[in-house]
Amino acid sequence: MLRFDSVYKRFPDGTEALRNISLHVPKGQFCVVLGPSGAGKSTLLRMLNGLSQPTEGSVYLAGELISEQSVQRLRRKVATVHQQFNLTPRMSVALNVLSGALPQVTHLRAGLCLFPSSLREKACHLLDEVGLTPEHVSRRVSELSGGQQQRVGIARAFMMDPAVLLADEPVASLDPRISRGILELLHRQSRNHDTTVLCSLHQPELAREFGDRIIAVNHGRLVFDGTPEQLTDKVCEELYHGALNREHGMSETAPSASESELELAAA
Ligand SMILES: Nc1ncnc2c1ncn2[C@@H]1O[C@H](COP(=O)(O)OP(=O)(O)OP(=O)(O)O)[C@@H](O)[C@H]1O
Ligand SMILES: [Mg+2]
User: Fold this and answer.
1) Could you read off the pLDDT of 112-162 as tens digits, one per residue?
2) Residue 166: in which H helix or E strand, if any?
3) Measured between alpha carbons, how far is 246 from 244 in angstroms, rounded to an integer?
4) Ligand nearest to the CA of 38
5) What is the DSSP letter of 87?
6) Is the pTM for the entire model greater than 0.85?
């Protein structure tokens, strides 16, 4: 479904945010992206919504080059769930969810908030799926808790039946108990809708619990790619404090989990 072929991202100031990333994420996989702050997680995700282009290499969605598709076209296929929810606080819950369908309605209809009944029904159905009750629908988003707001963000993300969902630290603004519930929901929704997910997280324990697969980046390189079981405490220690966190001396290509463990054992 998603393919990165030798992708580099260099910003004009010389920062190398991604270095030689090659990756294939099959359809329906829930792939968690770990890495310390500044590692390149958000840059990696942004390669998929057309808002940032690789300096070198190619990124494909369902066999089509992302760089050859307009942002408008990509919006129909790639949805995003944000750390800060990115909702419109003064608007109602219903309108925030419906705004997820904007790529599908005319500017005039959107400006007048005239959404077809099929979309309104879909929004209600999605709100039900994410655990919000009918009494929430007409409330302003600003009257909801952070966890409830992220539920609205998730409902909005599924309005277009996206092939791909990007979740960039979706629980970083929430307390740990709420975080687990939100990730459970994201996982369940992506399973039910057969959506491929790239989800960046800072908590290895949540990555193990919810990821079908875990990758880790650091200094723009892929430094780990394995299953939740392969993400041992030792690998995490190395990722955040040890060899996998050092800029130099890493291999150009990502080691598989077993190779990483060999590297770690040798360290
Ligand atoms: N527009 C930009 N111009 C220059 N450098 C940038 C730009 N955007 C990101 N960077 C740099 O690219 C590197 C990767 O940034 P990125 O935001 O992808 O990291 P991250 O892993 O998402 O970090 P965090 O966990 O803090 O969100 C960092 O060194 C960052 O400073
Ligand atoms: Mg980030």
Assistant:
1) 677 889 999 999 999 999 999 989 999 999 999 999 999 999 999 999 999
2) strand 164-168
3) 6
4) 1
5) -
6) yes
Amino acid at residue number 183: L
Q: Which of these, 238, 211, 237, 239, lies nearest to 226 by C-alpha position?
A: 211
Closest residue by CA, ligand 1 atom 12: 17
Structure tokens at 89: 């606080």
Q: List pLDDT tens digits, range 86-119.
A: 999 999 999 999 999 988 877 766 666 778 899 9
* Spacing, Cα 216 to ligand 2 middle (Å): 13
In testing the pocket of ligand 1, which one of 43, 44, 168, 202 has its CB within 8 Å of the most ligand atoms? 43
In what side-by-side order are the strands of the sheet with 16-25? 16-25, 2-10, 56-61, 64-65
In which region does residue 183 sit, left (phi positive, over 0), alpha (psi from -120 to 50) or beta (all else)?
alpha
**Which stretches does DSSP call E strand in the chain?**
2-10, 16-25, 30-34, 56-61, 64-65, 78-81, 164-168, 196-200, 213-218, 221-226
Report which protein residue has its CA nearest ligand 1's atom 27: 37
d(CA 211, CA 208): 6
Binding site membership of 37 for ligand 1 (Cβ less than 6 Å)? yes
